[in-house]
Amino acid sequence: MATKNLKIEKGNFLWFRLFVEVLIHMKDNARAHHDLVEILRMNYPQSNFVADFNQNYTADKAIEWLTRDDSCLLKELNRALRQQHLDHLFVFRYVINDIHQQLKTEHDKEIKDKEKTLTLYRSQVISEFELSQLLQANTGELIAINSFMSTWSDRMKAIDFHKEQHHVGLKHILFEIEVDYTKKSRPFAQIYGKEQDLTLFMLGCVFRIRSIMEDHTFHCYVMKIELCSDDDCDLKNIFDHMTKDFIQPETDLITLGSLLHRMGELDKARKYFQLLLHELDENDPDRAHCFDGLGHIENDQGRFREALKYYQQALNLRMSHNSSHTNHSLIALSHIHIANDYKDMGDYNEALQNVEKARTFIRQQNLQEDRIKEAACHIIMGSILYEKAKCIEALDEFQQALDINKQQGIPDDHPDRASIFQNMGLCHLTSGTIIHNPTLALDYCVQALIIRLNTLPQNHRCTGITYRSIGLAYEQLKEYQSALKFYKEANIIHKALNKTFNELQKTENDIKRIQKHLSDPMLRPTHQFKTQSSQNEAPADIGAIKFKTERISPQLCSTEVPIQVVTRRMILLGRSNEVKSSFGDALLAQDNYFMINQGSSSVTYTNESSHIVGFRDFYGRKLMIVDTPAFANEYGSNSIIRTKITHSLEQAAPGPHAFLFVLEFTPELSFSEEDDKKLCEFLISIFGPTIYQYIVFVFTNLEKLQRAGIEIDRYLKQRCSQTFINLMKRCKNRYIPIDNRAPPNAKDASFAELLLIIDRMLNENQGKEYTYQSSSLQQTLKFTTQM
């Protein structure tokens, strides 16, 4: 069961729920069933259930198929929900829809027959880390359950169920759930035919915490929660509005691709747009929407010429169907897209010409709903004026865009509104103008950041852009430590997206500039650095930009500027690519993410397409995992290994919080005393002696020791060389065992324990990350930067 604290994961929940809504409104087709059956056959080749499911599944029995004793549906669906594997959930779309419809039908019947309130119970094993997150939650806060949740009406049955679950490192928690049938909420209903008191809740239910306390009698924690109505969540206004944008009576791949683009899932969005293009006839007008979507993706990634080709294809197709007012509106939209792209390329004349063409089509119709496109024209005009340092005129354009949208009823926390604040803030950051005011700029950008943290998924590109803008404001205010903090946050997000993004190079230059300044207090920036407008962060559909508007008189924030989540940067080290990369994949909860080459080279990655950096949001933490080449028997002066390790360290700038040295438990002594001595010399020569303060040993294949009946301490004493034992002592014996065959929740418990070890280690290091101190590494860095 995936539990989300809406205080810190509000944006993720909002977009995931919109994604689910798109799925359950999508038209069913035979291909969906075929694709799901193929996945089940591949993962469960010996299961008789799959053949039965393929031949006999019906929508009205969806819950029965999900909860059958021999069903593999629930396992696969829960895995996809837990990992938020969007492609797999797309394959499950018709099953999710069928379950939703069945629950809704049964729920409507129960409303008439049931008592007003009902108490249900859910027993769960969770990681110690997840428990600590729940214990920190306050009474009245909201949590969301992003999976289907089964409950009992019998408290003792739920307690007995958790007694049967025994996993090392996991904690038991009993959810006591109060439901009120008079509240409008996500559907839930009793499951007939399985257990008479089992009740299933639709995924995405929101609950309010009433209390949490420890029950010493049953050795568990008891959390009392109540099911919220759809009106209780403070995301209701923004969710309702965005539902109107995305959810129609029937959704399609265009809707899905547009939503994924807004979520920042560019590769997935591209796949669905291209898939639909292959299915549509050459003259189908819906192809224009696909071209729009592909153009937005290319624009977001800085490939403006490629974007322009797609936008032009969309325009040409719409011009060929130019026979209705609706199409006139779409032609105006195409010109807006093209204008925005030319503006991003710096071709302002072409941009202005296309703005005028868009306005011509808008004026011809004079439709109220097209006024939003006029607002988009003002935004483009404002961005062009900003680039020309005409910031007073630019501010007026942005304000007109706000005013045009005044009557639209858009929520104050709509993410598109943040784009306006961002642009207005940047205008006040431009030096040499009479409106130059970094304090006012900071306030505008903080407002943009608060909106984006609350309404965008974590690690969204627009959030990274806003972090950098705040860093620029702090730098102009000469608050350099604060500037560095926000530049680092921006850098992490841009690395998570794509290392080729232009923003990544900018933030790395920002960090170097500030670090150079902080290392020499006598320095002062002597150049005028250009601030970055949010020109490249246009929403998926510029024509859908809508803002609730009024004259803005920002009040300077008295509270600390928010940082999204705690970040932990970790570098993988190891003697075996297979062992190290397999652990990295498990830590990321992704299959085959890190490239593994077990041939002639021990270098984990060999070309530009290889993954060396991975990210995961883990219970409010942002994990950054950086891979390195394995170095078994390749110590000495192997320049390739050293260069690759140097490159990995640069990815973790300004420095990793921990080095995870990944090994495996093996029955025999794998490495000799001499090998381990070379290992220690290699570590010192590359990283310097301070690396001992940052190493945590990770031993995989714990199940092998358990089968052999060997205790870990005895293994370390009898199967490891004295040199390796001394190495572990120098690292204060920080290690964690990992059971490769443990279920996902047990693995997550181990990963949570690993984070606690890293937190304690960081406290010992006064919260400082590892910095390059080895002369060998510094020379390698100098050499690689000169190449």
TrEMBL record:
It holds the Pfam family AIG1. TPR repeats lie at residues 288-321. Residues 565-779 form the AIG1-type G domain. Transmembrane segments: none annotated. One of its GO terms (molecular function) is GTP binding. Keywords: Nucleotide-binding, Repeat, TPR repeat. Belongs to the TRAFAC class TrmE-Era-EngA-EngB-Septin-like GTPase superfamily. AIG1/Toc34/Toc159-like paraseptin GTPase family. IAN subfamily. This is AIG1-type G domain-containing protein. It comes from Rotaria sordida. The lineage of its organism: Eukaryota, Metazoa, Spiralia, Gnathifera, Rotifera.
